[in-house]
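Would you be willing to look carefully at the protein I have copied below?

:::
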Amino acid sequence: MSQKPVKLWTKDFTMIIIINFLVFMNHLMILSTFPFYIEYLGGSEKIAGLAAALFSIVAVVFRPIIGWMLDNGKRKAILIIGLCGMALMPIGYLVLATMFLAFVCRMVHGASLAFSNTSTSTIATDIIPKQRFAEGMGMFGLATALATACAPALGLSLMENMGFTTLFLFAAISIAIALVLFLMLKTPPVVVEKKPFTVKGLLDKDALPASCTALVFMLTYGALENFTAKFAAEQDLPSGGIFFAIMAVALLITRLSAGKVTDQRGEGIFAYTCNLAMLLAFLLMGLFPNMATYLLSAVLAGFGFGGLEPALQSMAVSIAPLERRGSANSTFLCAYDIGIGIGGGIAGSLITAVGYNHMFVIMGVFNILSIVIYMAWGRNHPSSFSYRKKHGLD
């Protein structure tokens, strides 16, 4: 007699996906347009790269503390703090339109993102049944995919046609909607023993192999998210919004199957192929910048990020017990933030020093390094789906 399939899609699972989508709409609309805002305030690509780095550094500083708070059961309290901050910061950019105050708001925005998406990820892991864990995390990641499809294109369109005021107001409204949904969200009861605050307990060591592999990969993704739109404008290529829309379609298609493949075959297939796809995308844009390679790079980048990120996040939290899920998620998302932030900073400095084309070629080296880290550490760790299947541990 066949066993009844475990239900994945519930009202609360759908709700947390929508809230996460709105969080990333707010984040990515501003991320893709912020270099233009810095230029509007009189800054350069190097200054824009510094803003990206500071945004991520602040998020990284807060995430381990947030993970500890989540591990003490404070799921919804953390989420409401993050959502309130993300709603207010776009208004801050609008009202406090000076370089220094824009940087201050950007750092607070980074902290708010850390509160928001660390808590949404942890709430999702509480809701998803273990039998369909990687699949569920892949579906949860659809929020990021859909936001990647809509947010950069929408943000650039609003900026170009209606100005920064409309852009920032729209970003704030997206979180106002998320706050309404938050009031209807019911999270599973979390009964855990209160943990004392210790520096050692802020990171989850079992999440480190996946997190380090992701961190190095995200260096290239940080360059892509921060500077593709400006690269396109300088090269007379189609709008960055078109690039991100195409990338997101490929990302979305990949995410629909990535979770099931990870559950069945392990994350290794994505660690290899997705890094290689992103490397090829960067080489095409750096060495052969034209319409065809630009659009092909969008497809390759969509597959690269679409497959690797959910597979590695699932790996990072797959063996974490209930009382460590917050720390496991914060460890992975710290790596995510460090990669995007440092990647944006490195890319901005490289653009100033050697130009866009050389920047893309140089940044592609990190994809090779990401594969090396996974081969040397990740695939042989008990958190790896591939390792557990090989040794019959699942």
Observations:
- The chain is about 80% helix and 0% strand.
- The mean pLDDT is 85.
